[in-house]
Amino acid sequence: MSIVAKKSLIIVESPAKARTLQKFVDKSCTVKASMGHVRDLPKSRLGVEIEKDFLPRYVTIGGKEKVLSELKEEAKKSEAIYLAPDPDREGEAIAWHLAAMLGIKDTSRIELHEITKDALKTALQNPSPINMDKVNAQQARRILDRLVGYKLSPLLWRKVTSGLSAGRVQSVAVRLIVERQREIDSFKPVEYWTIAADLKKDGQKEVFTAQLARVKNKKIEISDEKSAREIEEKLKSTPFIVAKEPERKIQMREPSPPFITSTLQQEASRRLNFNVGKTMRVAQQLFEGLDIGEEGQVGLITYMRTDSTRIAESAREEAVNYIGSTYGSDYVGPARIFKKAKGAQEAHECVRPTSVFRDMENLKSVLTHDQFRLYKLIFDRFLASQMASCKVEVITAEILSGDYLFRAQGSKILFPGFTRLYIELKDEKDGEEDETKLPELHKDEILSLVKLITVQHFTQPPAQYTEATLVKALEKNGIGRPSTYAPIVETIQKRGYVEYKEKKFRPTNLGTVVTDLLVKHFTDIVDINFTAQVEEALDRIEDGEADWVRVLREFYEPFHNTLNAVEKDIEKVKNVYEETDEKCEKCGSAMIIRHGRFGKFLACSAYPECKNTKPFSEKIGIACPKEGCGGSIIAKRSKKGTFYGCDKYPNCDYTSWYKPIDKKCPECGSLLVLKFAKSRKAYPQCVNPQCSKARVQKKKEDVPPSEPAEAVQAEKGAETSESAKST
After folding, report:
1. Fewest C-beta atoms under 10 Å: which of 103, 116, 240, 491?
2. pTM for this one?
3. Active-site residue, from 58, 82, 303, 644
4. Each residue of 669-702: pLDDT tens digit?
5. DSSP string of 452-499, one letter each residue
6. Is 500 a catalytic residue?
7. Domains of the chain
């Protein structure tokens, strides 16, 4: 039986989604792709008539004429037209623009939260008009960003340097990174010491560790070595006695909620080493549909741009059946209602598999390596969220040595529950739930001291943002929405405001200068609370609770007044880019560090009079390991990322993907490089293939790029591209 009863046209955004849906319908129905947006504000001018209530003047996007022509021809032949872009603001706006361009008066908008035959059938049975509140929310966001970008960017060109751009949301993300770096730079470490005791019961070999916690019933703080050694001496001469019967508590550990966009991006970064852009690209492929063999082409996950942990009852029932049949009824958890995040929209479900009963081994054989890894992560997290809690017995023992109280803690898993399948990765923790064993201890039992462990520590500054923690901070502060996290992270790097080095964000000098200017003169633009309030206002527009023109007016009037005042008050900023000791061989001016598509490069500070550029090579202070070379290792960039090579190239061809360290192999004396385990812990490895501490490179991707064919051309391409842009 056909899903549609008459000649119909379904319009989606992407060809992949169109191919999947076409397999669910018969020949009377055609599925076409619009290839994303078909109309937008013009690139060459503002495109917004501010005096006419911010009337947008849309134009056809360049290159979309052919697509629109084909859609119009197909629409003329069709008795029914269904508009089916993604179920969010952008998708609603695409549907609205399509309706206008194709002359469709009675619109039939359908929403597909998963690309399956049943979902399509249900959607076609329940079409609706275009939601103009959603459209207006998208228009308001687009116009806000256009006003900021087209009004503020020229000011930055005049007062800072040419070619800059300012973004309403991206500027706040850069501010977070700048302020975090300043916290780190100004941090003053404080010394402290800890003391632990390795103990054992008489007649037993097993040793356990207890931590010094209190002295004379007060929390202990040891600030210097002298105090630590004095305590250590006292402990050596006093017995260790169990103060009371160990305390036993049963703890129930609950699973994490199923994924939303931000948590998917964070966990894929931690577990799979995916950046946020890659996570969303692979998730889009899983959502739009892939050919998985007998079942054909089908969407494997639900819509991946969501901030809701809601689960459809049918999906919950399917998960319960799978858990019961695979693990047993004891592993089936209660119907949990997870805490709703502030401002979360409930229009979508969580990110989950469209069916948990697909054969995992079959999927592994037909999906790419990255597709399968991300799918498995989504699958495991969803199922675990519906499994029973983990039951753990926690044992705490208190041990006295004179006036000093030590605590030892052990745990025993009584029932693994969801941890049999999945544990959220935090702080390099992976694998199964830990168990820490303590021997049977009883009050007044005397223990033998094996050794004391006295360690010096220093308080640590806050950590630099990673992609995962930046997304978490954006979500926590209400900056952006699920669909914007990946573009924010990618844009601030492309603009050269931040650099992502060793998986950590650091602001560039340019990013710091621009942020300081915006903070001083455009407080609202980079104010975290104000940006969150704008997001809330956009949500109210979508919910039909606010007028989009009024929201724009309330933002623009103070912004416009500030813009006029600042234009007169501030002078041109100097020393925007980081200057190097290197001189331009063409004109003798200092070379400065700039940022292109592939990272840093050197450019002449006399630009535009002198347009000389050349690759930037970062010295890491390590000598080349090749015998008789005498060169130094430098960090270079290629299309695939950072690699390390000799500065004597082409006379020396040493290259490696892994960063050399200033230590020699203890077995053979060769160079050591840093590699990373799955847990993200770094470990040294010898480069000598004959050494027992080396691992033979087997994978093609382990081989660094050849200098002339890829690395040099990539860097030259970056310079040429950036220079052309500036010109």
Report:
1. 103
2. 0.82
3. 303
4. 788 888 776 555 667 888 777 787 665 443 434 4
5. EEEEEEE--PPPPP-HHHHHHHHHHTT-S-GGGHHHHHHHHHHTTSEE
6. no
7. 8-130 (3.40.50.140), 139-187+465-569 (1.10.460.10), 191-254+390-458 (2.70.20.10), 268-385 (1.10.290.10), 579-726 (no CATH)
